[in-house]
Structure formats: structure tokens, C-alpha cells
Amino acid sequence: MLKRRQLLTGGAIGAAGLVAGCECGVPAGGALPGALKQRELKMVTTWPKDFPGLGTMPERVAQFITEMSGGAMTVRVFAAGELVSAFESFDAVSNGAADMYHGAEYYWVGKSPAFNFFTAVPFGMTISEIMAWTEFGGGQELWDELSARFNIKPIAAGNSGHQLGGWFKKEINSLEDMRGLKMRMPGLGGEVLRRIGASAVAIPGGEIYPALQSGAIDATEWVGPWNDLAFGFYQEAKYYYWPGFHEPGSQLACGINLDLWNELTATEKSIITGACQRANNISIAEFTHHNAIALEQLLEEHGVQLRQMPADVMDALAAASKTVLEEAAATDDITNRIYQSFRESLVRSMEWSRISDEAYMAARRKAFSL
Description:
Elements: H1 2-20, E1 39-45, H2 56-68, E2 73-78, H3 89-94, E3 100-103, H4 127-136, H5 139-148, E4 152-159, E5 166-168, E6 182-184, H6 187-195, E7 199-201, H7 208-214, E8 219-220, H8 225-231, E9 239-242, E10 251-257, H9 258-263, H10 266-301, E11 305-308, H11 311-329, H12 333-367
Parallel strand pairs: 1-2, 1-3, 6-7, 6-8, 9-11
Antiparallel strand pairs: 3-10, 4-10, 5-8, 5-9
């Protein structure tokens, strides 16, 4: 009994010592020595305010930061256009006008084509594959190196999953139907469209529907059934094509001003990183769940015509994608290194996916007679 009491007493003293030395936030009973500093951060986003999934994702990151810091760190979220426009978010964080942004890295292609690889590239990585590369395949280190050139620290903070081929006002029956087509598609996917004869336009999400309605564009991609339903694209374009080629697993990001990041304590950095990772995981489940429900609604309630993209179109897109990615890689040293790392990780993942997910899904359809 004596040894047991001594052990318990020693454990209690040890635990108390750990708590006293921990920067663990502001507890309800008052601040501990070394408690977190009170901070109010400004986050700008590339998304419409309160938009399902995309617009609520940064709000979730902000909520988690506050909860995990015990209220010491609060984040005020500004939707696209409230403080700066969607495409000005990067510069606002880079120069310190805002503390953080939430957006898609391929929006910053004007800064470097290498940013594309950290969101999605044509015929690139799925959700699990891009997470594997970012977390374990050297992707994060390269991403840090690239973003540091612009005074930003990046962290994955969401994924909207596989994006479909898009909404079209007219049927696509062959490659010829793509010639001259005006379609909203940013990033390297837009460049691939240009290579097959289409005309690609990069505009923020909030401007897509008016452009489709006015005839400024003939087709658009956005995210997937859940977000596409929310924007009401089916009212202007009835043909919904699959599969998508441009974004098989779109990783979204939180970028933090690097000067601010370097000032943060290890605990504060862990809180922000943990909040982003938590939001990232939840977004995957959220989009998977809601996309399935929204697809049923689009087909059964709104008369949407689901179409498979013709084989000659997909073949042309695949060939053009290879060329576009290789040309992007040749831009400069860091883009080439990022491309090579991305490609090596993807090739490894493809073989594993072939005998695991792909084989299983094919067998599962037979089991359920689908």
C-alpha cells in the first residue's frame, strides 16, 4: 500500500508539474503561468459568404482555433469581397493586411505555376493520394519552401473531393463539340482546355452563374453536386458531365502570414495546425455525404441530364494534360522539383490504388447488382 501511495503521489506531482509548464490556453478558473496570449486574427477567403462547404470551411477553422485555444485566439472571417476580393486574398496575407486566408492554391498561379500542385492538377491525385504526398511524401516541405518566397506559411485545411466534368448548355458528342467552347475553369485545367481548342475563363465562384446566364460562358465546372446545386447551375445548363479530369481531389488551404507565424509559440502553431487538420478531415466526410444526396436531387427533382464525357474528349484531355504539366515543370527549378516529387508519389499510389480501391469498387458493384 505504501508503494502504491508513493506512486500515486509522485504521479500527481508530476502531472501538476506538466500542467504548470504547459501553454495550454486560458482555463475557466483563471490564467496559468505561460497561458496563451490573447490574439484576434483576420482571415480573408476566396469563397462566397456562408456558402455550403466552401464558405463554411474557413468558419470551421476559425471555430476550432478558438475552441482549442480556450478562447485566447479568435479569428474574424471575411468572405470574398468583404475585405478584399477573392483573388486578392494571397497578397493581403503576404503583405500583412490580413493574417490568414482560406482558398485554393491554384488561384495563385500568377505567382508560380507550382501552386497548382497543392490544390489539384489534371489527371492528378485523389483525396487520399494528395494527403499522403503532403503529409508523408515531401509535399509539405516543398510547399513551405515555395510559399515562404511570398511570406506565407501554408497548411492543408479542406478537400472537396472529386469534381465532375461540368455543366454544359449543349450536348458534347465528340471532341469537335469542344472547339471554341467558352468554359469557366481555372488553373492548369483551363490551359488543358485551351490546348484542345476550347476557351477557358477563370472567374471567382460568385461570378459564375451570371456569366452562364448572360452567355459570357457556355459551360462551367465548379465543385460537385452539393455546391453546384446551391448555385443553381441546372437552371441554365441541363447537361452534367462525368468524369472530371481537372480536379480529382481538390485540396484547399489556409495560408498564414509568415512573420506572424514565426512570432507564434509552439503551442499556438500546434493549435492552428490542429484546427486546419480537423477541418480538413471533416470536409472530406461532409462533401462525400452531401454530394451523394445532391446528385439524387439534381437528377430526380430538377431534370438534369447526366452524361459521360466521350472517349475521344477524355483521350485528348489526357494527352494535353501530360504536355501542360511537363511545360509547367520546366518553368523554374522549384516548380520542377515539386512536379518530380508529385509525380513520384502519384506513380507509387497508382499501383496501390489499382489493386486496392479500384479492384474493390468494381467487385462491390457486382455484390450490390449495380
